[in-house]
Write a structure and sequence with these properties.
about 25% strand, nine-stranded mixed sheet, Gfo/Idh/MocA family oxidoreductase, Gfo/Idh/MocA-like_OxRdtase_N, about 350 residues, alpha/beta, GFO_IDH_MocA-like_dom
Length: about 350
C-alpha cells in the first residue's frame, strides 16, 4: 500500500510552475501541503491551483511538521543553504541543478543527507530520457565497440523567454546564479555524458564567454573539450545564444558505429553501423524546453522516498557533474587544461 508523501515547494518560479508543481499534482502518492516564494503573489498563484499553505520564508515552511519532502526551486546560490536546512529539519530534498556553487557546498549537502538519513536527489532530467537510457545500454553491451569520441550540445535563445522575470531574471545575475549557460545547460550535458559513457570526466579545457546578452553578468556561450578517464575525448557546447531553434543533441562515435541522439519527432536515437546497417529507435522525442511532458524526475524522487532506495541522481552524482563545470570555469580563467577535482581536498 502506497503512502501519501506530503510535499512543500520552495521557490515558485518557472521550473516549479512548469515541472515540479504539475508533476507532484499528477502523482497520486503526493499531497502538496505548502508553497513558498519570497514574492508572495507567486506563492499565492501556485496555491490557487495546487493548494497548500502559503509561506514567504522557507524556514517557516521547514518548521511545518507535516512536510515530509521539499523541492528546492530557487536561484542557484540558495540551493545548498536551503537543502542543508531542509535535510537538517528531517525533510527529503529534491534540489534543482546545479546542486551548489562549489564542491564545498555540495559536500556539505551530502553530509547533511547522510546525517539525517533522508533522500537527497538532484534534478538532472536527461537520465530519464528513453533514448539516453538506450544509448547507455548499447555502449555498455559493447555493441558499439570502443568509444572514440562524442559531441554534445544544449542551447536555446536564453531564459528570458520563459523565466518569470524575463531579462531581469536571477539567471543573468552572477551573485544569484553564480554561473550562466554552463550551469543551466552545461551541467545537464556533463551529467548525461557521464551517464551514457559510464565513466568519469578527468580533464577539461574550456572557452566561456558572454557574447549575446549584454545585460548579463554570467556566461551565455561556452565550448569545452572533455577527456574521460579512459581517454575518450569530445566536445560540449552550452549556450543561450542559439537564437532561432533549440539544440539538444548528443552524438557518440565508436569503433563499430555512431549513435545519434538528435531532435527528431519520432526517432530520438539512430544507430549507424560500419557495415551500413541503420537502426532507428522509436523512443519518443528528447525532452526540451519546447517539448515537455513528464520529466520523470518527481516520480523517481517520490519512489526513492517511499522505497528508501538511493535515487538515480544522488548528491554524489550531482557533485561529480558540478565538478566538471567548475573545472571548465577554472580552465577558462587560467587558460589551462584542468583536472576535474573529485572533492574539496582531492
Amino acid at each position: 500500500m502506497n503512502m501519501t508523501v506530503k510535499v512543500g515547494i520552495i521557490g515558485c518560479g518557472s521550473i516549479a510552475q512548469h515541472r515540479h508543481l504539475p508533476e507532484y499534482a499528477a502523482n497520486q502518492d503526493v499531497e502538496i501541503v505548502a508553497v513558498c516564494d519570497v514574492v508572495k503573489e507567486r506563492a499565492e498563484a501556485a496555491q490557487a491551483i495546487y493548494g497548500g499553505k502559503i509561506f514567504t520564508d522557507y524556514t517557516e515552511l521547514l518548521a511545518l511538521e507535516e512536510v515530509e519532502a521539499v523541492s528546492v526551486c530557487t536561484p542557484n546560490y540558495l540551493h545548498a543553504p536551503i537543502s542543508i536546512a531542509a535535510l537538517n529539519a528531517g525533510k527529503h530534498v529534491l534540489c534543482e541543478k546545479p546542486m551548489a556553487t562549489s564542491l564545498q557546498e555540495a559536500e556539505e549537502m551530502i553530509a547533511a543527507a547522510e546525517k539525517s538519513g533522508k533522500t537527497l536527489m538532484i534534478g538532472h532530467n536527461q537520465r530519464f530520457v528513453p533514448a539516453h537510457q538506450k544509448a547507455r545500454e548499447i555502449i555498455a553491451s559493447g555493441e558499439l565497440g570502443k568509444v572514440y569520441s562524442f559531441r554534445t550540445a544544449f542551447g536555446h535563445p536564453g531564459p528570458e523567454g520563459w523565466s518569470v522575470d524575463g531579462v531581469k531574471s536571477w539567471f543573468f545575475k552572477k551573485d544569484e546564479a553564480f554561473i550562466g549557460a554552463m550551469g543551466d545547460l552545461g551541467v545537464h550535458k556533463t551529467d548525461l555524458i557521464r551517464y551514457i559513457l559510464g565513466e568519469e570526466i578527468a580533464e577539461v579545457g574550456a572557452f566561456v564567454e558572454t557574447s549575446a546578452k549584454e545585460f548579463a553578468s554570467v556566461d551565455d556561450t561556452a565550448v569545452c573539450v572533455l577527456k574521460t578517464e579512459s581517454g575518450i575525448i569530445g566536445t560540449l557546447a552550452a549556450s543561450w545564444s542559439y537564437t532561432a531553434k533549440e539544440d539538444n543533441s548528443t552524438i557518440i562515435y565508436g569503433e563499430k558505429g555512431i549513435l545519434r541522439l538528435e531532435d527528431d519527432p519520432k526517432f530520438s536515437l539512430v544507430a549507424q553501423y560500419t557495415d551500413g546497417s541503420i537502426v532507428r529507435y522509436e523512443l519518443g522525442a528528447i525532452q526540451t524546453n519546447e517539448n515537455q511532458s513528464n520529466s520523470h524526475v518527481v516520480d523517481h524522487f517520490i519512489e526513492a522516498v517511499e522505497s528508501g532506495k538511493a535515487p538515480l541522481i544522488t548528491g554524489e552524482e550531482g557533485k561529480r557533474s558540478l565538478a566538471v563545470i567548475l573545472a571548465a570555469l577554472e580552465s577558462n580563467e587560467k587558460k589551462t587544461i584542468e583536472k576535474v577535482k573529485t572533492g574539496v581536498h582531492a
